[in-house]
Design goal:
Helix 9 (226-237) packs parallel to helix 13 (305-312). By secondary structure, this protein is of the alpha/beta class. Mean pLDDT is 84; it is low at 255-260. It is globular, with a radius of gyration of 20 Å. The protein is built from 14 helices and 13 strands.
């Protein structure tokens, strides 16, 4: 395998990057260079054992990035949005560092995980603003062939930052949230299992140099409302479940989750995102482009909410799952 086929994966020990790194390593056609802050972490050591070249670096240090990008064919890039939200990290600077280092290193293919672009008619979106600025910057560099990756709503959000709750009877599962009305649709995806095949599909797609050069890929398997999610959860688990719409500002609804309020606010108060998600291209055929590229890379289809529930055994009534929902973080 020529070293010119090396793919540098940013955030290789996280959910998105980890999925990409593992998929490429299993496939074998694209050597993986895993970029991480912690090369001695359990995840980094597992990637190294699987055959990845693990390199240490910091997104805030452009010299680290340039060294990591030397001789690479493509870069899967993403920025540290949650650290930026906590303060002390400039996400736009990180994104521009990634793009500038790629140009300096002579890398052409640049996949940027940038979230999604909100139609101006819905108003500004704090959640998406910085990523949109970075996307515009990357797309404006003539030296790069940029594909914008739009990952949608993670199935694992129900574990990491938005867990359903048990009702007062201790049995009924409530998908209980402010902002999210019964009619809002969530384009959902299984980040751990679908992001990697999607990127492998792009790398091997005959459309990579045409449709996807300067284009974008929505990564989502289907669009569902919260009542639909609750009904599917009930079907799979046999537990009674339903959607509850909470008053605006009611964020303190998961016992024991100390960081829930701030996380809920960062996701829920950005109402323009949810209005946008319930409109436009996400209402029809949301899985079609993802299914197209995944068909190239694997004989599988994007993971539905029902398939994810059956595979993981996600169970809100189970004390072990409740403990996991309380303790799991975005780090």
């Amino acid at each position: 395998m020529s070293p010119s086929r090396i793919v540098v994966v940013i955030g290789a020990t996280g959910q998105q990057g980890g999925s990409v790194a593992r998929t490429l390593l299993e496939d074998g056609r694209f050597p993986v260079r895993a970029f991480t802050r912690r090369p001695d972490s359990e995840s980094a050591l597992a990637l190294a054992k699987a055959g990845a070249e693990v390199v240490q670096g910091d997104l805030n240090n452009i010299a680290d990035l340039e060294r990591a990008f030397k001789g690479a064919y493509a870069i899967y890039a993403l920025t540290d949005a949650w650290s930026a939200a906590k303060g002390g990290v400039d996400e736009v600077t990180q994104g521009k560092n990634l793009a500038d280092a790629a140009v300096r290193a002579g890398v052409k293919k640049f996949f940027f995980s940038c979230g999604f672009r909100i139609d101006p008619k819905f108003g500004p979106s704090p959640m998406c603003h910085d990523k949109n600025v970075i996307e515009d910057y990357c797309q404006g560099l003539p030296e790069l062939e940029v594909t914008s990756i739009w990952p949608m709503f993670y199935h694992t959000n129900w574990i990491q930052c938005m867990p359903p709750r048990l009702a007062a009877d201790g049995r009924t599962v409530e998908f209980a949230y402010p902002i999210y009305t019964k009619d809002m649709e969530f384009p959902v995806l299984d980040t751990d299992n679908d992001m990697g095949p999607a990127i492998l599909g792009l790398l091997t797609s005959p459309k990579l140099d045409t449709d996807y050069n300067g284009g974008s890929l929505i990564v989502a398997s289907e669009s569902l409302t919260l009542p639909q999610m609750a009904a599917i959860y009930s079907k799979v688990t046999g537990q009674e479940a339903h959607h509850v719409f909470l008053p605006t500002g009611d964020y303190d609804f998961v016992d024991g989750r100390g960081d829930w309020t701030s996380m809920a606010r960062s996701l829920a108060v950005d109402t323009n995102v949810w209005k946008f998600w319930s409109s436009g291209p996400y209402r029809k055929g949301v899985a079609d482009p993802l299914a197209d590229v995944m068909e190239i890379s694997t004989p599988t289809k994007p993971t539905t909410w029902e398939a994810w529930l059956r595979r993981t055994g996600f169970n809100v009534q189970d004390p072990a799952w409740r403990e996991k929902m309380i303790k799991t973080t975005w780090e």
